[in-house]
Design brief:
Distance between the termini: 28 Å
Shape: globular
CATH class: Alpha Beta
CATH topology: YaeB-like fold
Strand content: 25-35%
Strand order of the largest sheet: 1-5-4-3-2
């Protein structure tokens, strides 16, 4: 299985990088954080069911996986893992998906 990243998830990663770089005053720390998160995308492609099922919260096929303070929300599309969002764990995930 491969992974793909939705445009909204790409924007989330940009926002996370900017916030981390600003708060830490370190581009290296921001880069490491993004690397840690995106490394999980490859892990999900190998083990797509490792995340928690969110079908009751978001609808059929949705799953989530925590990575540090962040949560990757994904689903399956064709034969791929599709990363939909990457958000801070304190966010109300249900609000993001209209549930």
């Amino acid at each position: 299985m491969a992974h793909r990243v939705a445009q909204r998830a790409e924007a989330d990663l940009d926002d996370i990088w900017l916030y981390a770089a600003k708060e830490s005053s370190s581009i290296e720390i921001a880069n490491r954080l993004i690397d840690t998160i995106t490394d999980r995308f490859f892990t999900l492609a190998r083990f797509p069911y490792m995340g928690r099922s969110r079908e009751g919260n978001f609808g059929p096929g949705y799953r989530s996986l925590p990575v540090g303070e962040y949560v990757i929300v994904y689903c399956f599309e064709n034969e791929d893992v599709l990363v939909l969002r990457v958000v801070h764990g304190r966010r109300q995930l249900e609000d993001l998906f209209g549930q």
